[in-house]
Structure formats: C-alpha cells, structure tokens
Predict the 3D structure of the following.
Amino acid sequence: MYDILKTFGKVKIDEPLSKHTTFKLGGKARFFVSVDDIPKLSELLQYLDGEGVPYFVLGGGSNVVVNDEGYEGVVISVQAKNVKIENDSVIADAGCPTVTVARESFSQGLTGFEWGVGVPGTIGGAVRGNAGAMGTDMKESIEKVLVYRDGEVMEMKNTECEFGYRTSIFKREPIIVLRVWLKLKKSGEEEKNGMKKALEYIQYRNQTQPQGFASSGCIFKNVQISEEVKRIIAGKEIPQEFLEKKIIPAGWLIEQVEMKGYTQGNIQVSEKHANFIVNLGGGNASDVFHIIDEIKTRVFEQFGIHLEEEVQIL
C-alpha cells in the first residue's frame, strides 16, 4: 500500500500523531499521507473507499484527541491551502488555516469573518464543526462547499449542510469538505479597521483562554436551554443571564462541580477556563479521557445535565 499511497502525496509510516495535533499527545498512525492538491485528495479518498481501507482526515489538528493506541488506518493531512478573493466571496481549500482566510478577507476590504483570526485549525475543520466565536459561526458566512460524498465530488449549498450548534451534516455522515466559499460584505473601510476588529477578538481570546499550554480547544459544547433542559434545571441555581441567553456555559458547570484545576497525571483542567483541558507536558490520552468522564459524571450528578463533547475522539 505504501507505494500506491505515494502517488497521492508524501507518506510516513508509524508517524506519531502527537506531532500533528494541538494537544501534543496520542499514538501513531500506521500510514500518514500529506496531500496538497484537491484533485489528488479526492482520488485518494476514492481509492481508500474502493479498497475498504479505514481513514481519518486531519486538518490543523485542533479539536481532536488521539487515543494512546494510535490509528491503524490512513491519516490524511490536508495541505491544500489555496485561497483567493472574487468580489465579495472568499474561496479557500479545506487545508487553509482559518486565520489565513480571515486575514485575507479583511485585508481585501471584506467584513464578517474577522472573528476567524482567533480560531485554530483549518477552514475545512471549521466548517465541519460549525466553529464560531464572538456570537457568530461558520453558518453565517458559508455560501457553498465542494465535498467528497459517496465516491463523487459535488457542491452542497449552505442549507444542505444542516448546520447546528457546533455541528453539521459533516459530523454525522462520511462527507469530506474539499473547498469552501464564504460570502462576505464589502466593508468600505480601510484595512486597518478590519485589523483593529481582528486584534480585539484575539485580545479577548487571550484574556479568557489558557495560553502557553497544549490543548485541543473547548472540550464540551455549551448547553442549549431547550424545554427539556428547563425541566431538568428547574429549582437549581442557574444565573439569570444564562437563562435569558438560553445557554449555560460548560465552563461554568465544570467550575460548579469543583473540577477547575483538577489534575490527572500531566493533564489538567485549565485554571483559567474550565472548559479547556491542557497538557502540562508529556501527558497521555487516557488521563484526558479519565478527566472527561469525571467531569460528565459530576455535572450529571449535580445538575442532571449530560455534557456533550465538542472535540472528536480518534
């Protein structure tokens, strides 16, 4: 298989995935293939599907926790990073860093995606998880996406992507994002104004999120207050501002069950933001999973709420 995989990109055998994820932990990939061309990527996916070989598509390595045993199939690192501007649209390959897409957009006088400068990972991954910040998300900007689905390459409109809070059809079905079209607005402002807004977003993230530690980003989704959740939390002390916004921050729940700063091995619940789990150095995935389970158990016992992971487990 090694020789065939080489026709699609650069191949490494038994590659440590800790080198390719922001959490800096996890086992090895049996085959690790870096592909820098969208047509080659789709051809590789067709080949692997045809052969029945399991694969995992890796973007920027954020929002994922790799288990200590690694992955026996093929991990595909998407390195296709082309991005261009056409009028008020931004067209970006799935492997393009989200921060690059954001900078390119506001540097060309487009507004609406400045918040992307603080989002780690690639634009393909951001679409898959409907990433968001500062009260908005990918759904608000996506016009269409080019995808690999059932052995074919096709386009999907925004409405076909089934975007929801930190989710999309791409999380529920084996559909791979290849290219993204963002529909933004002409700001009519100078570049420095877009840069000013972007810097404000970055400053806010730096003030509220842990810096200097390896992590995968937010571990859990915030809790949407549905009618069912209302019944569950009835009588419990939930801040009024959360009830009005209809969202309970996962970090707040984790603090309430006294897990902030909790440490297992070299893995710790961040002392700055409880919805971040950080690698203090040399940590392993089993300790991450232990902490995740402990948080979920404590939150359920105290609040009756089932926290749902935002990160993907590999």
